[in-house]
Specification:
765 residues; alpha/beta; Rossmann fold; Beta-Lactamase; 5 domains; five-stranded parallel beta sheet; five-stranded antiparallel beta sheet; 23 helices; 20% strand; elongated
C-alpha cells in the first residue's frame, strides 16, 4: 500500500450492526483515518464534516438501505468511491449497486487481504480522478494566458521593426508545430529543428537540466526554464558559441515566450499520455466485461461490439458492426426504449427475449443510455446487455420452491384433516361390519363414508391446482368469492394450528359482497389468495384480525381487499415488497410470494395496491375488470346422449383400485379386461379387440406413458385414457397431445365421471 494512500486516505464505514462495523474499523485503523456510522442519516451528516475518500457500506440496513445511501453519496460528491458489502450474492442487487456508481462489492465473509486490496484500489482511482480534473482546469487557465499573450504580441506587431515581425511569424509557425504534436519526443525534435533552420542557431536542445558548462550571462547562450504552475518541465538551451554570433535581446524575449508555449505543449503531451493510458484501460475493461457493451450510431447501426456481445449474440465484430441493432434486439422493445430516452431520461431499461444467432431463445436485460453532444443533440446510444437466461431459470426454480414451501407449511393441517376423514371412514366401516342387520344404520354410515371421501378428494384437488399439477385450461368465468373460500379452506388448518400453538386470539372475518365474474384461472387466483392470507398470518405474531372483503362496481370491476392488524411496514419496505427476492423474513422467506401475487394480478389485467404503516397493519387492495363476455362456456351437458357399452382394457398395478374400477365399469354395462401391469396389458392387447384403453400413469415397471407409447405404435386410432393420483406436471401436457390421449382423469373419480369419459372416448376424434 502506498504512502500517499495511507497518509491521505479517509474511510467512512456504515453498518447498522456494531460487530461488523467495529471489525472493519479495527482492520483499517492502522492505515487510514476512520469514521463509522450506524445508519444512513448519520453517514450523510459525516460526509460534510469528515469528507471521506472511500465509503464502505452494508447493502441491507433498516430505514435507508445501502442502495439509497449510495445514490445520496454520489449526488453529494461523485468522486467518492463506494464499496458495497453484502451477505448474499443477489445478481439484481449487485447490478443496481454497480449501475449507480459503486466501485466494487465484497461478499461476506471476506478476508482482510480482500478488504485492504479493494480499499487501496478505490483510493488510487479516487486520486487519479481528482488529479485529472485538476490538470484539465489548469490547462484551460494556461490556454487563457496564452491567448492573452498572443493578443499582446499581435498588437505589438504594428509598431515593431521588421525583424520582430519576422520572428513572431517564426514563433507562430513553431507554435503550430507544437500544437500539431502530442508525443513529447516529436515535440522536442520538431521545435529544435525549426529553431535551427529558421533562426540559424548553432545548437538547440530541450534538456532536463542546464549543462554545467553553460553560463547564463554568456551573450552567445540562452537558457530558458520551461515551467508551468506545477513546476519546471525542462530547459530550452540555445548555444551560438561555435559561430560566436551574439543572441539579440529581442530573440531572448521571444525564446522566453516560446518556453511558455513549450510548457503547455509538454504538459499537454503528458495529459495525452494519461488519456491514452486511460483509453487503453477502458478498452481493456470493455473487452473483458461480462456484459455486452454495444455502441449504436444515431441511425441505429452498430458501431462498437465487445467480446461479450459476440458471446451472447453469436456474431463476431466483423459480422455485427454496421448492422441495425434491431437485428439483435426485438424491434418493438428497442423502439419503445429509444422513445423513452427521447422524452428526457438518460437511461432506459427493459427485458426481452432474443433469438438472433442463438440455437434457443436467450433472456436479456438491456440498459440503453443516450449520448448527447454539446448542444444536446443525440449523437448515439450505448446498449449494455446482460444474459439473464440462467437467472430466469433460478427464479423459476425458486418460484416452484416458494409453492412447495407454502405446501410444507400447510402439510400439518392437511394431515390433520385427512386423519379426521380416515377416522370417520374407518370407524363407520367397522361399525357397519357389526351392524349388517340394520339397513338404516348401514345406509347412514355409507353416506358418512361417501361424504368423507368426497371431502378428501376436494382437499387433494385444491392442493394439486395450487401446485399446478392439474391443468388450468383456458380462461374461464371465475367467481372471486369462490376463490376466497377455496383459499380459506387451504389455510384454515394453519390458522387453527397457529391459534393453538401461540395461544393468541386470531379472528378471520369474511365480508363477501355480490359481485360479477371475472376472466381468469381459478387455480391461479386461489394461489394468489393463499399467499396473501399466509403473509397476513405471518404479519400478526401477537394475534389480531384478518379481514377479507369483496365488492363490485357493476359492469366495471371487482375489488378484493385483504386487511390485517399486524406489525405493518415502513415506507421503504412497502415500496419494495413486490420485488423478486425482497423479503423481510430473513432466511425464512424466498422473497417470491408477493412478487408471484403481483405477476398473477397483472396476468389477469388487474391492479394491486398496498397501504401500511408500522404498527398499523397492512391492507392489500386488488382490482380486476369484470368479464366482458361469457368465457370458457361448457357445452350443454343436459342434452340426452345415447349410451354405448365399450370394450375396455383397464390397467392399474394397485389391486384395490383395479378391482374397484372394474366393478364400477361393469356395473354400467362395459366389458372390462383387467390387467395388473403394463406388461400384462401389452400381452392382452390386439388391434380391434378393444374400444378404449384406460391406464394408470404411476405404475412400477412399465408406467402409463410407456404403455401408451407402445400401444400407439401398433394402433394409431385406439382411444386412450389416462388416470392418475399424482397429477400432471407442466411439461407433460404437450406429451398428451403427442400421444393423442383423449383425456386424463384424476383420482378419486366418481362412477358418472368415469362413464362419461368412456362415452366421450367412443366418439371419433
Amino acid at each position: 500500500m502506498s504512502t500517499t494512500a495511507t497518509t491521505l486516505g479517509r474511510v467512512l464505514v456504515v453498518d447498522d450492526e456494531l460487530g461488523p462495523r467495529e471489525s472493519l474499523r479495527m482492520l483499517l485503523k492502522p492505515s487510514y483515518a476512520i469514521q463509522t456510522a450506524e445508519n444512513g442519516r448519520t453517514a450523510l451528516d459525516l460526509l460534510r464534516r469528515f469528507q471521506p475518500d472511500v465509503v464502505i457500506m452494508d447493502i441491507k440496513m433498516p430505514e435507508m438501505d445501502g442502495l439509497e445511501l449510495l445514490r445520496h453519496v454520489k449526488r453529494a460528491d461523485p468522486s467518492i468511491e463506494v464499496v458495497m458489502i453484502t451477505a448474499y450474492a443477489s445478481l439484481e442487487t449487485v447490478r443496481h449497486a454497480l449501475t449507480h456508481g459503486a466501485f466494487e462489492y465484497l461478499i461476506k465473509p471476506f478476508s482482510r487481504q480482500d478488504l485492504e486490496d479493494v480499499v487501496h484500489r478505490a483510493l488510487v482511482r479516487r486520486q487519479a480522478d481528482l488529479g485529472a480534473r485538476g490538470q484539465v482546469a489548469r490547462l484551460v487557465e494556461e490556454m487563457r494566458k496564452l491567448s492573452a499573450k498572443t493578443r499582446e504580441l499581435e498588437e505589438a506587431e504594428a509598431t515593431e521593426q521588421s525583424l520582430r515581425v519576422t520572428q513572431l511569424s517564426i514563433l507562430r509557425e513553431i507554435s503550430r508545430t507544437i500544437v500539431g504534436h502530442l508525443d513529447p519526443q516529436n515535440v522536442t525534435a520538431a521545435v529544435t529543428e525549426q529553431l535551427r533552420a529558421a533562426l540559424g542557431y548553432d545548437c538547440v536542445e530541450i534538456v532536463p537540466e542546464i549543462p554545467v558548462d553553460v553560463d547564463k550571462n554568456d551573450p552567445f547562450v540562452v537558457a530558458c526554464v520551461i515551467r508551468d504552475m506545477q513546476g519546471p518541465l525542462g530547459h530550452l538551451v540555445i548555444d551560438n558559441r561555435s559561430s560566436q554570433r551574439a543572441i539579440d535581446p529581442r530573440e531572448r524575449e521571444l525564446l522566453e515566450m516560446l518556453s511558455e508555449y513549450l510548457a503547455i505543449a509538454l504538459r499537454n503531451s503528458r495529459l495525452y499520455g494519461e488519456i491514452a493510458d486511460t483509453k487503453q484501460r477502458l478498452e481493456q475493461t470493455i473487452s473483458s466485461a461480462g456484459e455486452a457493451i454495444i455502441s449504436v450510431a444515431p441511425d441505429d447501426r452498430i458501431e462498437k461490439w465487445n467480446p461479450a456481445a459476440e458471446r451472447i449474440f453469436g456474431y463476431g465484430a466483423a459480422q455485427a458492426i454496421g448492422r441495425p441493432i434491431t437485428d439483435m434486439l426485438p424491434r418493438g422493445d428497442y423502439a419503445d426504449a429509444r422513445r423513452r430516452l427521447a422524452e428526457g431520461p438518460s437511461r432506459s431499461e427493459f427485458q426481452t427475449t432474443a433469438t438472433a444467432g442463438q440455437p434457443r431463445p436467450v433472456e436479456l436485460a438491456v440498459t440503453l443510455s443516450a449520448l448527447h453532444g454539446r448542444h444536446g443533440r443525440l449523437e448515439g446510444l450505448i446498449a449494455i446487455v446482460r444474459d439473464i437466461t440462467a437467472q430466469r431459470e433460478v427464479e423459476k426454480q425458486l418460484h416452484q420452491s416458494e409453492k412447495l414451501t407454502a405446501l410444507g407449511q400447510l402439510a400439518g393441517g392437511i394431515a390433520h384433516d385427512f386423519n379426521n376423514l380416515l377416522q370417520a371412514i374407518l370407524g363407520y366401516a367397522q361399525l357397519m361390519k357389526q351392524s349388517l342387520h340394520d339397513p338404516q344404520f348401514v345406509s347412514r354410515s355409507l353416506n358418512v363414508v361417501e361424504a368423507a371421501a368426497v371431502d378428501g378428494a376436494e382437499t387433494v384437488r385444491r392442493i394439486q391446482q395450487f401446485a399446478r399439477l392439474r391443468p388450468d385450461g383456458p380462461p374461464v368465468g371465475v367467481d372471486v368469492n369462490q376463490s376466497v373460500h377455496d383459499a380459506v379452506a387451504m389455510i384454515r388448518p394453519r390458522l387453527e394450528e397457529k391459534i393453538a400453538r401461540d395461544n393468541r386470539p386470531l379472528d378471520l372475518r369474511l365480508d363477501l359482497g355480490t359481485i360479477e365474474t371475472i376472466n381468469g384461472r381459478p387455480a391461479a387466483l386461489t394461489e394468489l389468495m393463499t399467499n396473501l392470507l399466509l403473509n397476513a398470518l405471518d404479519a400478526m405474531p401477537d394475534g389480531g384480525t384478518l379481514t377479507v372483503s369483496t365488492r363490485g362496481e357493476p359492469g366495471r370491476s371487482v375489488v378484493l381487499t385483504v386487511a390485517d392488524t399486524g406489525i405493518g411496514m415502513p415506507e421503504a419496505v412497502r415500496r419494495r415488497i413486490f420485488e423478486p427476492f425482497f423479503s423481510t423474513k430473513g432466511e425464512g422467506g424466498s422473497g417470491l410470494g408477493l412478487s408471484m401475487v403481483y405477476a398473477i394480478v397483472r396476468r389477469h389485467s388487474g391492479d394491486i395496491r398496498v397501504e401500511s404503516e408500522p404498527g398499523r397493519g397492512a391492507t392489500f387492495t386488488l382490482t380486476f375488470p369484470v368479464a366482458s363476455e361469457p368465457v370458457g362456456a361448457e357445452p350443454d351437458s343436459a342434452l340426452p346422449r345415447a349410451r354405448r357399452p365399450a370394450r375396455v382394457l383397464l390397467v392399474d398395478d394397485d389391486q384395490k383400485v383395479l378391482g374397484t374400477l372394474t366393478e364400477i365399469l361393469r356395473s354400467v354395462g362395459h366389458i372390462v379386461t383387467a390387467a395388473a401391469s403394463g406388461g400384462a396389458a401389452l400381452t392382452a392387447y390386439e388391434p380391434g379387440r378393444f374400444d378404449v384403453v384406460l391406464t394408470n400413469l404411476g405404475m412400477a415397471g412399465m408406467n402409463g406413458w410407456e404403455l401408451a407409447e407402445r400401444v400407439r405404435r401398433v394402433d394409431p386410432d385406439i382411444a386412450i385414457l389416462l388416470i392418475t393420483g399424482w397429477g400432471l406436471r407442466d411439461e407433460e401436457h404437450g406429451r398428451l397431445k403427442t400421444l393423442k390421449i383423449r383425456k386424463c382423469l384424476f383420482k378419486p373419480v366418481r362412477p358418472a365421471e368415469l362413464d362419461s369419459a368412456i362415452q366421450d372416448a367412443l366418439v371419433p376424434a
